User: Fold these one by one.
Assistant:
Number 1:
Amino acid sequence: MAILQATARLFADRGYEQLTMEGIAHEAGVGKQTIYRWWTSKGALVADCLLEGLLLPEGIAPDDTGDIRTDLVTWLHKIFVLLESKGGPALMRSLIAAGAESDDVGGRLGDTFGTSSFLVERFDKAVAVGQLPPDAPLQQMGEALLGAVIFRTLTRAPADADVAARLVDVALGPRLADDGIRHGDLSE
Amino acid sequence: MAILQATARLFADRGYEQLTMEGIAHEAGVGKQTIYRWWTSKGALVADCLLEGLLLPEGIAPDDTGDIRTDLVTWLHKIFVLLESKGGPALMRSLIAAGAESDDVGGRLGDTFGTSSFLVERFDKAVAVGQLPPDAPLQQMGEALLGAVIFRTLTRAPADADVAARLVDVALGPRLADDGIRHGDLSE
Amino acid sequence: MAILQATARLFADRGYEQLTMEGIAHEAGVGKQTIYRWWTSKGALVADCLLEGLLLPEGIAPDDTGDIRTDLVTWLHKIFVLLESKGGPALMRSLIAAGAESDDVGGRLGDTFGTSSFLVERFDKAVAVGQLPPDAPLQQMGEALLGAVIFRTLTRAPADADVAARLVDVALGPRLADDGIRHGDLSE
Amino acid sequence: MAILQATARLFADRGYEQLTMEGIAHEAGVGKQTIYRWWTSKGALVADCLLEGLLLPEGIAPDDTGDIRTDLVTWLHKIFVLLESKGGPALMRSLIAAGAESDDVGGRLGDTFGTSSFLVERFDKAVAVGQLPPDAPLQQMGEALLGAVIFRTLTRAPADADVAARLVDVALGPRLADDGIRHGDLSE
DNA sequence: TCGTAACCGAGACGGTACGTCTCGTCTTAGG
DNA sequence: CCTAAGACGAGACGTACCGTCTCGGTTACGA
């Protein structure tokens, strides 16, 4: 639908706050009523954009190196780079604001990130090949990772280089050497 | 300042979106210009409320039992209970929205939760008494915990009972028995 | 046609301003396009209602007493009573508004009131029996009477009792006694 | 007030129907709310324009020749000429529509035309100098004249030349010669 | 008997204007 | 002199209708 594309365009340009129904209608060459006929609110509209994948860049998921830890670090790092790029924080915060203000968007965010994402596949595979124990709290590991990203976005924390590695360490548990002693460069 | 109290009252009642400068001015018995003289935006106003502790309930921090894991689970559980209570999710989401939309609020949230909180003290003490290794990524552990709470709030995930325990397991790393095998009820 | 009846019903209920094509279509159980197929505008629709006599009450014309003056006063009085009744002024003003806004309705009003009405017959008869001179400006006398009614409706003037008599005096010219002196209770 | 002037300008250009609050606001360089703060409706706005004399041309009243009949015919004729001119009928019908739809405008029309006008002065003087009997129904004579003009406007009757004379004859009563026989060119 | 065409109801569409709301600035009267 | 009160220009909100435009579904006629 042209409306969704117009919404995505304006959302990326201006953010959620500045997004207006009138602007969308005009951008899409559509009457306002046509939007209200199909969506109950700005939130629902943005949620559908999310569902259609019009808001988030694709191709974040890195290649599978066989090592879950490496892959996660690469993935997180890509996200951080994206968040440091121009417009990245604004888009992310707009999404968070939209999710906070609208049940539709919030639920959709959960669906998009929580269940159907790269993380789920990768975690499942890691369990299958024995890199993670079968009783690992996969759900919470994902929440911890994604939540940390959101938290850092909210608090405007700059994403320095090895935060990604440390976060993965937290999520997966520390690497264990044969002697059971933790290793890793965790100094900050 | 009466303005901050009025802001906090209306914020708690109506949330961030419904909060209006005119409403605050009227509630505080003050001219709008007086507000604009001291704060540049709604966000700055809310950020100052946050700083004064007018928005968040006190006394979440549980007693120190000596065991960091127990204390964290208790603390998380209290938060979850708060989030399940009437008005809890709305207030939390309003805070998130405010943080997303306003740099002031976002930064203040970071200060409030990230540096000056219960978590920092508790983590530091755990390191001191050897419950955590000295090189533990404390910062990221906190981000993971708080971020997960935010993520669950955003996605409207209901906070069932042992999510708290699992999240703490993720954050602290699993409990290790003498044999180096993880234990815990992590099935979901 | 069901459409005309629906139009008349809604016109009587709500007036010309509140009359909407969509309302008529719905009331008549008809698609909007069907109305637009047969009538070009709301005005044309109302004009046809007028032509069919669906908008105005019938039977205003009083019995013929033989005296033109008496009959006119009775007729005017009936009109005034109608105008004082519930919904009377609203209907009349709606008609005026419709006539002012739509050439169709205006022309039809002229036909209905100006040429085919009680007044024409009555005036003609009065001329025939010698109650009015043969060169009397019948057209203008009618305009004066009807126009005065419209003017009073527009200006919301209450129709007190002997306005009717005075108006008829104006239209017919004053009664003349043998001595050529005017008589009549014309004090106001 | 700039708002009233803008209203008058647009009313004269476009008529009452096409008059929009948004158009007025824009034309006056004013926010819509400012209009709504001071006037409850389009009607009230137009009524105030009327009161300020912004809608009607001035200088209709002719010189006083001493003969009421001549003056009235001249006056009526001027009105008819105005009504034949470009935009004349549209303005008049817009006024009528406005008066029909809005109590404010209707009442003001009554004030403007019915009580404070040229007619009242002229009639009073005619009574004073004996051209009209002291008990003449002046009010109704005025209503008849103005009403006839309105009626002719509504019905789109073209205002041919001697309609004015005939209307005045109706309003004043026919001229009486010494022999009590009516005279006048009343053929149509 | 069966297309096929006209006409229907329904209602989505791109628009305009509505009247309300809030923004951030500007003005004013009174303490 | 500062403040409360609130008017102001601006413009988004969600609603009501406008007049146009497809849609299927049903008669009803001509082949």
Number 2:
Amino acid sequence: MLNLSASEENYIKTIFHLQEEEKNVTTNGLAAVLNTRPASITDMMKKLKQKKLVHYQPYRGFRLTTGGNRYALSIIRRHRLWEFFLFEKLKFSWDEVHSVAEELEHVSSKKLIDKLDEFLDFPRFDPHGDPIPDNQGKILKTRQIPLSEMPLNRTAVVCNVGDQSASILELMDHNKIGIGTRVEVKKRFDFDHSLEIKIRQQVPFIISESLAKKIFVKHGA
Amino acid sequence: MLNLSASEENYIKTIFHLQEEEKNVTTNGLAAVLNTRPASITDMMKKLKQKKLVHYQPYRGFRLTTGGNRYALSIIRRHRLWEFFLFEKLKFSWDEVHSVAEELEHVSSKKLIDKLDEFLDFPRFDPHGDPIPDNQGKILKTRQIPLSEMPLNRTAVVCNVGDQSASILELMDHNKIGIGTRVEVKKRFDFDHSLEIKIRQQVPFIISESLAKKIFVKHGA
DNA sequence: TTTTTAATTTAGATTTGCCTAAATATATTT
DNA sequence: AAATATATTTAGGCAAATCTAAATTAAAAA
Ligand SMILES: [Mn+2]
Ligand SMILES: [Mn+2]
Ligand SMILES: [Mn+2]
Ligand SMILES: [Mn+2]
């Protein structure tokens, strides 16, 4: 497989993520995320088009080719495996892993990544609850689900709150739940559908169904 | 601490190693090791002199400053810790670790390296038997010693053979001992000073004192 | 001590990845 | 359908890290 520079890899990966939201990625959109100027994006798109990694027509935006997509998934695989390693083995906190993985992901040895995967026992989700592509580039597509629908005893990660009111934030704050919090549902009570949940090393506690419906989590399949 | 590019780091590290042999490092000498042209070395030396990492007078060769030396040791620390990780945790073979570590060493997070060190339980030697600097940059200086002088039950790595005759090579070949072989002395017999040694997962076997005196190993302190 | 050889530096390019400012194409309003 | 605004591309430059070919300096040989 062809070998891209760290810069090219960052472009490819970012296009991949932007594509999940919009069909077509724009010059300004990509420039904003990558913290560069639109002119730089145009330069790079010409190069990536040459390498057949993006479809690109001037003024018409761009998207990854099949090859570009495959490459993007391999970068995401590296990124998330390293995040898992940092979190699980080196005891980094969930919000510290990203920036270091951002560098490690560019170390290109295929063998390194496959051995790392094996060493970590083939994890399926990174510390943010995002799925890790396997060595074939296959990835589970996870969508956000409300905590109320999580199966029991599986780690999930809070990724969204479907309500921005002060009252819900106060309650979440009180319970020390926020974006990124890892949570496990231990029990579901039939009477009022309240949930017993556990976060971090704390003793489990109970939250109402109405709160659980507003807390969106990733992963759990 | 200032942050150097991967390229600058490779220069600094290589100068450090060359310095161990010769007081003064030369333009051509460094160019040969780094696989670049002499003109590139001169360019880089000007830059590193500016950054006060090398002492350099045109036509007079160069050597690291105190700061350059400290920086070199931090790169060597990263390199050898990664080598140890690859060998010990990911089960790479001893001759595969170097090239991957050559890339990993440039990931610059201090926290990453110190946590990795801790995770690996503060190893003192890399898979080639070279000492790993601690987080203060302190490094044990190991010299080569003949296998006959190794203490019992400590892993050593064959790094040199003090005789190039066909007969010694035949014997080493027969015993499957070569540069890089990891060996442990299990017992020393008083009668003829022969040694019982163990290599890899094999059953221990005996070699003569005269052979053991010609096989030089690193590490064991 | 010259002369010759070898090592080193300088001059001038090239590539990658980025930038600013100006031009141009597309989209949105009137 | 113009006119205006916004998005995008082009033109021209710059810094890092490399190169080749041409000086230049130092070392070795005569
Ligand atoms: Mn990155
Ligand atoms: Mn992640
Ligand atoms: Mn390196
Ligand atoms: Mn080593």
Number 3:
Amino acid sequence: MFKPVSSKLNANQMELEVLDYWKKEDIFHASIKNREGKTEYVFYEGPPTANGMPGVHHVLARVFKDIFPRYRTMQGYHVIRRGGWDTHGLPVEIEVEKKLGFTNKQQIEDYGIAEFNQLCRESAFKYIQEWEKLTERIAFWVDLDTAYITYKNSYIESVWWILKNFWEKDLLYQGFKVVPYCPRCGTPLSDHEVSLGYRDATDPSVYVRMPLVDDPSTSLLVWTTTPWTLPGNVAIAAHPNVDYVTVERKESSGEGTEKLILAKSQIESIFGDEEVKIVSEFKGKQLKGKRYQPLYTFLPPDKPAYRVVLADYVITNEGSGLVHQAPAFGADDMQTAIDEDLPILMTVAPNGTFIPEVKQWAGRFVKDADPFIIEDLNNRGLLFRTVPITHTYPFCWRCDTPLLYYARPTWYIRTSAKKDDLVANNQKVNWYPNHIKDGRFGNWLANNIDWALGRERYWGTPLPVWECESCHHQECIGSVQELSEKTGKDLKGLDLHRPYVDEVEYACPKCGETMHRVPELIDVWFDSGSMPVAQWHYPFENEQEFKEHYPADYICEAVDQTRGWFYSLHAISTLLFDQQCFKNVVCLGLILDGDGQKMSKTRGNVVSPWEVLDKHGADAMRWYLYTASPPGQERRFSADLVNEVLRSFTLTLWNTYSFFVTYANLDGWQPGKADKPQYSKLDEWLLAELHGLVRDVTTAYENYDVLGATRPIEGFVDHLSNWYLRRSRRRFWKSGSDADKEAAYSTLYEALVMLSKLLAPSMPFIADEMYRNLVVNLDPQAPKSVHLADWPKFNEGRLNDELVADMNLVMKLVSLGHAARNKSQIKVRQPLQEAAFSVSNIHDSAVIHEYADLLQDELNVKSVRALSAASEAAAYELVPLPKQLGQKYKDQFPLIRKAILALDPEKAAGMLLKGENLKISVDGEDFEILPEEVEVRMQAKEGFEVASDGAYIAALVTTLTDDLVNEGLVREFVRRVQEARKQADFEIADRIRLIYSCSAKLKYAIECFKDYIMDETLSVELDGENVPNILPNLSDEFDGETLTIWLDKA
RNA sequence: GGGCCUUUAGCUCAGCUGGUUAGAGCGCGCCUCUGAUAAGGGCGAGGUCUCAGGUUCGAGUCCUGAAAGGCCCA
């Protein structure tokens, strides 16, 4: 006996029960233990941060991470899945700062770094339970008990080892570069962090006069969108090859004139309708070296400044074509300063305010000083114009402070030195979708810039570089032991975080003075990118484990990780081992809400995963995420869309399963009893589709094609339920057991068991629920769960393309037959005499005969046949097929087509249908047209109800004989009896006594078909005479007849 | 400003190397079937395949350009 299965499914409840079973039997670990000693399949978990609530996008990533390890496990691989947590970094610090109400770094220092970091350590796992709960509920099988944690000493020590390795290869260096800098957080931001905060902002753009030293009546007209950088001005840049002009204009006071230098192309946009006189015209290079009067002299330049320099990056489609240069506040400016040996004026303090030397605005946040600077320039007659400009400007992604571009000393990894290796190793990676490889990721590598590693913060992996306070000798430390040796103290118990590591000092080997650790931490992306090494505490231990699990076979994250984790893994792996870090990577698109809007807290359209899980279950949610669109594409998400999956796919499958179990139990059927089932055509067809499905799904999994591994199953289940099962119902209903019934059970059983395996990686709950009932329940030898089972192999001998094609044709003809019935307004319950079909070739007409029974039954007609071309066709049409003829005759095709259409269709059709060639001539050239190159279509004569699609026609003979009418009435009668049975809550197998009273014509019909009726309704007695004096079960009128019935269990 | 992606029915998506009349599901309207089904079947409305050029006998598909949206980067 199978466990009875209700046709109603409570997905949530079913899944929770399965979860309990998995937990009780520890199926996850069993599935790994199961494969011990087998080939390793290596998966890396990209560590999330557990200091925020997990959302739908995390579910997306996690279910995609889950699917391939499950598949590979079933294929016999050993797949350990070690979880991981990203615990360091600014996001964690920000949370703690918020909690403490801090707004700047000084408050943290005052509070105490040790205490602050302790809170960070706790906060990093604030939502760990939420993460664990969700991970379990969506059946992401990952080992969280052994998860690596980036703040652990062992992890940090491995990261140090990597850094030391880079140090020894001269890949770690301290540089002085202009970086995007958050004055509030007091730290430079990585490119990745900066990119999180771009948005439109309005700033004052100003045009400023810079009078020439040699000719004070002439000024350079200089443009900038950052007035606060003007006190740091040291030069003006012009483009060498752009045309510049000196124009003369009336001064706005009305008196006198002034001369201004600017790019010629900007005259109109700057002066508009105002009349200006062009005094002279010249190339930009002629401006080189021209000296101008400085705007401000707060800081004395230590090198010659205040002159025009040339630079190619000067643009002339906005501004004036003359660009103000402040090397401390722009990457381009800095480069120019280096090239031109210009001074660097640092007018701003690390907290974003002007330094005391900038007397007027000292202590004021620079952006807030803009209006005052503008006012000052105006008062001094140097301001030409100010115009608000809206442009995209970066803001700090955490605290929303406008970023400043700011020259800072910081640490870099010289990734650009290994650019060729980075590019070469990328070529070995399979990217899904493929375009990322040479697109987004490839371009990023090709334009590689050094990795800005340093962070001037508190909670993170400290940069293990010690520097002598006196001679500035630097050393990089690669292990705790090394540090112990340096200091002569056993530092095994040392917490490798600030402030404890900062307290470790030792004597400089060069000069004997004290070595202190440099203040920086490292970028958290370096933490997570180190996980292949650091999760094993390699090379300090676990050498074997590390080597067996490097590189990864499979990783998967959202596309925003291109420059995040994907890059940090790839870069570290390349610099460390010159090897690719991952072989296959699936890159997921973003999640949008049901209307295609990005989910965000501010929009309030964030869907909670639990909302969906509680209602529709994890399987449906997973299935939706897998099948909605290609993985790399963004996908919409809403509870309704998931509900759709449940309704159209899960429930169809479940009902098929429930049907099988119900009838198999009724018949006491068990698998494997009959040696060799005598399969019908329909069975063989389903098995051909089934084994084709196994083949296709397997191929898809091998190619990391999630859509290909899921969508075809939907199509199969639809065929299984709405064709195979519908067509086979009577085989299961009939009483007794015979070979045909056995074949039907065997086929359906095989399909359901196979489906449970094919669905195991994608819908792990329903798959196991079915498998355990269908297989484990009967076979004590079987694995306890589908997830411990082997992936199915398809049977080549079961494949049958011709049979599949034939059945497709049958379905099409049935569909046309239904269409014709619909037109005739004759319901399907009324039998008709005959259906005739027209098809486009000889093979297809054989199909009509072969599947005559099926067609008759499905369309409720007494006979089917091919439409006779000779006697029943009214007109023929020739359709020259462009695919065949076009490819064969190329540009002659249009004329040949015309010639074919000009033939007498009837005569030509006759020849083609006999398999003869057509002879035509075009421009004196003769051609033989083959029968397969022209499609013959016919139209049926009158007297039929016809529906057609292309060459396919279904024609119904709609004249009704008395016999047919009687049979129709009987069918109506039977249906009402069945309805009454259902309403009386009888069991499917209950036998009944049936009493009826009705009008004469119906009564006659019932008498004629008495045996049929008793058989259909499981009546042991059919009585039209002895009407009882009690309330009837049903009274009805139809087709002009009246009917009353009583029934009773026999 | 650069790179990449997307644009096909009201919605979600197919459309293989160019080839007959561009399809499916959902939704909508009408009809129908049913002792597995919250289902199934049929018919109908709904498309200038974002636009403009080009290549070709033939373009949703290939090429060029443009537009809109998205992501990433400046």
Number 4:
Amino acid sequence: MSAVRLLDELSHAPLKSEWLDTILKGDCVAALDRLPEKSVDIIFADPPYNLQLDGDLHRPDQSKVDAVDDDWDRFESFEAYDAFTRAWLLAARRVLKPSGTIWVIGSYHNIFRVGARMQDLGFWILNDIVWRKTNPMPNFRGRRFQNAHETMIWASRDQKAKGYTFNYEALKASNDDLQMRSDWLFPICTGGERLKDENGNKLHPTQKPEALLARIMMASTKPGDVVLDPFFGSGTTGAVAKRLGRHFVGIEREQAYIDAANERIAAVRPLEEADLTVLSGKRAEPRVAFISLIDNGLVVPGATLYDAKKRWAAKVRADGTLAIGGSAGSIHKIGAEVQGLDACNGWTFWHYERSGGLSPIDELRRIARLGMERAGA
Amino acid sequence: MSAVRLLDELSHAPLKSEWLDTILKGDCVAALDRLPEKSVDIIFADPPYNLQLDGDLHRPDQSKVDAVDDDWDRFESFEAYDAFTRAWLLAARRVLKPSGTIWVIGSYHNIFRVGARMQDLGFWILNDIVWRKTNPMPNFRGRRFQNAHETMIWASRDQKAKGYTFNYEALKASNDDLQMRSDWLFPICTGGERLKDENGNKLHPTQKPEALLARIMMASTKPGDVVLDPFFGSGTTGAVAKRLGRHFVGIEREQAYIDAANERIAAVRPLEEADLTVLSGKRAEPRVAFISLIDNGLVVPGATLYDAKKRWAAKVRADGTLAIGGSAGSIHKIGAEVQGLDACNGWTFWHYERSGGLSPIDELRRIARLGMERAGA
DNA sequence: TCAAGTTTTGAATCCGCAC
DNA sequence: TGTGCGGATTCAAAACTTG
């Protein structure tokens, strides 16, 4: 693999072959237009999400949330965002080989608009993939569900496109011999992997985890393929491509990001060819919510639960809380309350009645887990 | 809850009040237009997915997969599907209360188009929710990832809409005291829950699991609310609404589905009202003004309040304000000021001296609330 | 040097009533 | 319809501090 080079941002001439494994500086569409048509095997795009944030958000401890308020994420309107999306998708499509595929990541703020534009332009959606975050930011005001995932769209160039790369067998082998599902579980990018600036602050507000890109490339590219990233940012795509023996092309406007990405990629050591076969994903231990026992029919609303000695009896409500006397709350809260303790494991404290007598609801949790494990919860 | 009734499909006159807990037969938009505006609390919509299936799909054992190939799932083009989507969303929006919310479920075939149209019409997305299936159909050809989830969009009527129902505390209590995430795990609808026709075949190709609808209603409705489902199908929404003490309105074109849904809903026994109580948090507690503690004699003018570590001491004045140094104001303002913060909860920050040491004035608020309850305030 | 406790932080469309 | 303000609200993991 050749060294990382930086191309002249002022030129508009078509590029020859020296663009492989380099970062093109400049506007996304202009840079794409300089690349030869049908020249890249896959595209990974992490475009601005158009978050439309309004005012500050504080945590319960009054600290301020460091929001994404960069200029590049501000658009006048949905129409402006749509026009931007259409333009870069069109330019990207020209560059993509007929058998190539494209990945686009987004959140609910933008992904629906992006997906609709992709379909309008003739891209053929193969899957939507959910990146479930192990450690998402909470919802601090308690007014919505915790936004715990992002969505990726995987599409071929058009409906009739054949021969795209999908390493089905390798993915299956890496997933306990089960075919890989459309929901993936990864932590967000933190720790040593997260690039920092000279002040120790995060260099880029939306750096993606390398594991995510590795899964994508292992699934939909072959060694030696060319991966294009039109919103290169901190260069995760380039770092993973180099490590996995793929070529990359990045496009990025900001010099600070380009410099950091070049340095980052230069430090990457490619894997030995023999190690490129299978990369395994991480599994999390399944957590069972009490309400899922109700969902599964293992517990019925209105049922009574007891402690082991039947000193207390509490009623299950449809919302998944327990009620006893005047108070209601989670199985843990109510268990603690009746005992006058600060904390209590409701799973082992509360019991349900069955033929032989009382059994802890933890048994029901075990049963529920059997179903969840199949889903890799 | 009144019995299920079937309304005349030919009439176009506006409906009076007899539409509650009934299924309206006919075209979705025409039926919506007959309902009063701003009359339903939430909408759950499971529109046609526009699957665009092309030819038959066979399992490895050569058996044919029973695909969704009904007429109602066929559209000429994306444009036709968009027009259909826009029309029913617009009609649904008129019927929704200003503080109401809407849920729409779909797959990658249609959800991006639906989501974009929703944004175009002014709906404000609150979350996208991923339904992860424990038992999805495998991908038989091994050319894509196993399509193991569907996506739901939860949105308010418009950006400024306030006061929508979200039972945050109940959801959290039912989930091991962790806030509910945007990825949910449920099995697909099978077994006894799945409606069968006279030949023992599935009655409806896309019957949704009741647990999914129960989670939705427990999250975003109160008992007695009205739930509208403009694509009623086999009536899952009605069955769950009745069981959970909510009203429903269904719209459906096919008589066979209407008949099956009516029969199904008639067999549902509602839960006891006591089991339907929704856990509410501090936000729902009655307001207590700090000065009422003085009125009640729980705090005496001239008393000194401290923070937990006695770093600051402030004096209570007869008008219900706190004074410290040169400044005076509410318990919250002064608490924030001494800490140099923008905001502060004075009830938990300030403490009063008693025999055992310091106690937060929030304790006094609780005592005051008990008095208010006795007085029926 | 290690263990234990504390602080920090991450793509966030994050309030509702009274006046 | 806008403005003011009371006061409610967080999970996982890394980084940092203390013993």
